UniProtKB/TrEMBL annotation:
<dbReference type="Pfam" id="PF00126">
    <property type="entry name" value="HTH_1"/>
</dbReference>
<feature type="domain" description="HTH lysR-type">
    <location>
        <begin position="2"/>
        <end position="59"/>
    </location>
</feature>
<dbReference type="Pfam" id="PF03466">
    <property type="entry name" value="LysR_substrate"/>
</dbReference>
<comment type="similarity">
    <text>Belongs to the LysR transcriptional regulatory family.</text>
</comment>
<protein>
    <submittedName>
        <fullName>LysR family transcriptional regulator</fullName>
    </submittedName>
</protein>
<dbReference type="InterPro" id="IPR005119">
    <property type="entry name" value="LysR_subst-bd"/>
</dbReference>
<dbReference type="InterPro" id="IPR036390">
    <property type="entry name" value="WH_DNA-bd_sf"/>
</dbReference>
<keyword id="KW-0238">DNA-binding</keyword>
<dbReference type="InterPro" id="IPR036388">
    <property type="entry name" value="WH-like_DNA-bd_sf"/>
</dbReference>
<keyword id="KW-0804">Transcription</keyword>
<keyword id="KW-0805">Transcription regulation</keyword>
<dbReference type="InterPro" id="IPR000847">
    <property type="entry name" value="LysR_HTH_N"/>
</dbReference>
Length: 306
C-alpha cells in the first residue's frame, strides 16, 4: 500500500520545483525527499520528474498524477489541521535512537512523565545516523559523528572504555603482573580469565585491546549475553571480566558489586553526542530530552567523584 507521505513529498517537489525546496517545506532531509520520490516512482511504475540541473521538471505522467491527487491531499491536510485544532491538546511525537543500555541507564526512568509521545529505536550507530538524516529519527545519542550536512552534533558527555571484573576476581594478582610492565605476561593473565561479551558486538573489547596490546584479542568470550547491562548483572555474581563503558557500571563499582580492574595504560575515551537535523519541528521536545540526559549524566559523574 502506498505511503501517504510519498504523496506529500511529491506535491512539495511539484510546487517548489527542487528537492531542496521540498525538504525545507517538509522539515526533512533532502535524502529523505529523494527516498520518498524514488519509492513513489517505483510504486506507480513510471518516472514523475525529469531532473534538469537542480530543477525538477514534472513529466506528463507526473502532471496527471498531481492533478489527480492535489485537491484530495489539500482537503486531507485541512481536515488534519482542523482536527488537531479542535482537540484540547495536540500531543507531538518524537523518535529517538540510542543503544539499549543507554536507554535503561538514562531515559527509561522518565518516560512515564514525558509531556509528549516518544518512540525509542535501538540499532547500530551508522543505521541511526542514516535514519536521522532521512527524517525517520528526530534525535540520536551516539559516540560517532556523521558527515551529512543536514545533521549537527552537540557534545554533552564522554565515556571511558574500561576493564571491569566481578568482586571475586583477584585484582591484586593482576596488579602484580601489570607492574612487571611485561605486556605478554599481562595479556596472558587476562586471557586465562573467564570473559563476558554481547551478541555480535566486540567493538569495545577490540578497541581497548588493540590500543593497549597493539593487536586484536586472540580469544572469544566464554559467555555471550544479550546486552552490556546483562554483563554488569552477571559480573555481580562474583567472577569474570569484561570491557564496557564506565558510565554503565559506576553505581555497581561504588557499591562493591564489581571492581574496576584496569583503565588501560592508554585510555579509550569516546565523546557522546546529541545528533539532530538542523531543521526540525520538534525543537522543544528535543531540548526536553537533552535536559534529562545532562541531568542523569551529571549525577553519574558526581557519584564517580565521591
Amino acid at each position: 500500500m502506498v505511503n501517504l507521505e510519498w504523496y506529500r513529498t511529491f506535491k512539495a517537489i511539484y510546487r517548489t520545483g527542487t528537492l531542496t525546496g521540498a525538504a525545507d517545506a517538509l522539515f526533512i532531509s533532502q535524502p529523505g525527499v529523494s527516498l520518498h520520490l524514488s519509492s513513489l516512482e517505483a510504486y506507480v511504475g513510471y518516472k514523475l520528474f525529469d531532473r534538469t540541473g537542480r530543477k525538477m521538471i514534472p513529466t506528463e505522467r507526473g502532471k496527471v498524477l498531481y492533478n489527480a491527487i492535489a485537491d484530495a491531499l489539500t482537503k486531507l491536510e485541512d481536515v488534519e489541521m482542523n482536527f488537531q485544532r479542535s482537540t484540547e491538546k495536540h500531543t507531538p511525537t518524537i523518535s529517538v535512537g540510542m543503544c539499549f543500555e543507554t536507554f535503561q541507564i538514562t531515559l527509561e526512568q522518565y518516560v512515564s512523565k514525558l509531556p509528549f509521545n516518544l518512540i525509542i529505536n535501538f540499532g547500530e550507530y551508522p543505521e541511526m545516523l542514516d535514519q536521522l538524516d532521512k527524517g525517520i529519527l528526530d534525535l540520536i545519542i551516539t559516540p560517532k559523528k556523521g558527515i551529512s550536512g543536514t545533521i549537527e552534533h552537540e557534545a554533552f558527555s564522554s565515556e571511558n572504555i574500561v576493564l571491569v571484573g566481578g568482586k571475586d576476581v583477584d585484582k591484586e594478582a593482576f596488579k602484580k603482573v601489570h607492574r612487571t610492565k611485561n605486556k605478554e605476561k599481562t595479556e596472558q593473565w587476562l586471557k586465562q580469565q573467564k570473559w563476558y561479551g554481547t551478541t555480535g558486538d566486540m567493538e569495545h573489547l577490540f578497541s581497548f585491546w588493540t590500543l593497549n596490546f597493539g593487536k586484536k584479542p586472540a580469544f572469544r568470550p566464554n559467555y555471550i549475553v544479550p546486552n552490556l547491562n546483562s554483563i554488569v548483572r552477571c559480573l555481580s555474581g562474583g567472577t569474570g571480566l569484561a570491557v564496557i563503558p564506565d558510565f554503565l557500571c559506576y553505581s555497581e563499582i561504588e557499591s562493591g558489586h564489581i571492581q574496576l580492574i584496569w583503565e588501560g595504560d592508554k585510555k579509550v575515551t569516546n565523546t557522546l553526542y546529541f545528533g539532530t537535523r538542523k531543521k526540525t519541528t520538534h525543537q522543544e521536545e528535543i531540548e526536553h530530552i537533552k535536559v534529562l540526559f545532562r541531568k542523569v549524566m551529571g549525577k553519574i559523574r558526581q557519584g564517580k567523584a565521591k
